[in-house]
Amino acid sequence: MDNQKIKEILLDIAETQIEFSVIQTGKESKRVNGFYKPDTHEIFLHNLNFKSDNMLVYTAVHEYTHHLITERKLEEDPTYVCNSKVHTQEFWARFGELLKIAEDKGYYSLGWENNAELKALTEDIKENYLAKNGQLMQEFGKKLSRAWELCKEADIRYEDYIDRVLCLPRNAEKDIRKVGAVPVNPAIGFENMKTVASVKKADARAEVEKDFLDGGKSPATVRELMKQKAGQVKTDDKKSRLEKEKSRLEKTIASLTQRLEVVEESLASM
């Protein structure tokens, strides 16, 4: 696959307004498969690292994600300078979205289902480890809640009990207890259950859980979607508050204007 073909694939996955170039180095690297230069908008691919075009496309999409995020940040701030922390949650979420598009368009395939042993192992991991561990931690959370109640009844400091008897880190204890306090499907695994349990409203929790169960979305993508929705709610709330304030001010101005007319008429008659 030549550089122009790779570029055409990337542009078909997602458009960009900033010109970029794809360069296959003809080299092998033990350190990285590729890299992106944000100042020149160049994608470098160490193509001798790859045994197939499929793996080459994966890395190309990875580096192209850096380009698209750089483009977005430059739109927000033309003086933006790329820093060292480039693999943020936003990055992994965007990368996951682009990979899904690449799969849908037939440019890339993860292909784990085609390996019989890997497929069987995946089913074993999901059913006997992710789901069972999730269920166990859910029950664990309920046990901790009961321990909290018993400590309270017996006038025992629960935090000291957690620290020195169970030897549980306090943050871990909070996460486990939250998972036990709300209905969450254990099939998504304990780590994802923590994310779902952190959502306060039941309907919003169900929506997040569905994102995990439907598949095709990474945990980073789900968390980024949650962040975006929370930001939109805050924006809507702020807009609503401003509209109410505007209405109150308009009524106050109308009332003061009417009073001013009365005062002016009284002054004129004196």
Question: Which properties best describe this structure?
Answer:
Zincin-like; about 270 residues; 3-stranded mixed beta sheet; 3 domains; about 5% strand
Supply the number of helical segments: 9
**Subunit arrangement of the protein:** single chain
**In percent, how much strand structure appears in the residues?**
under 5%
- Rg, Cα atoms, Å: 28 Å
What CATH architecture of the largest domain would you give? 2-Layer Sandwich
Distance between the termini: 93 Å
Count structural domains.
Answer: 3
Number of strands: 3
H/E series: HEEEHHHHHHHH
> What is the CATH class name of the largest domain?
Alpha Beta
Helix content: 55-70%
Give the CATH superfamily of the largest domain: Metalloproteases ("zincins"), catalytic domain
Describe the overall structure.
The protein is mainly alpha-helical and 270 residues long. It has three domains: 3-110, Metalloproteases ("zincins"), catalytic domain (Zincin-like), CATH 3.30.2010; 114-217, no CATH class; 220-270. Helices cover 67% and strands 4% of the residues. It is built from nine helices and three strands; from the N terminus they run H-E-E-E-H-H-H-H-H-H-H-H. It has helices at 3-13, 53-76, 89-104, 116-153, 158-166, 170-181, 190-197, 202-214, 219-268, and strands at 21-24, 34-37, 42-45. A three-stranded mixed sheet has the order 1-3-2. A hairpin with a 4-residue loop joins strand 2 and strand 3. It is flat and about 95 Å long.
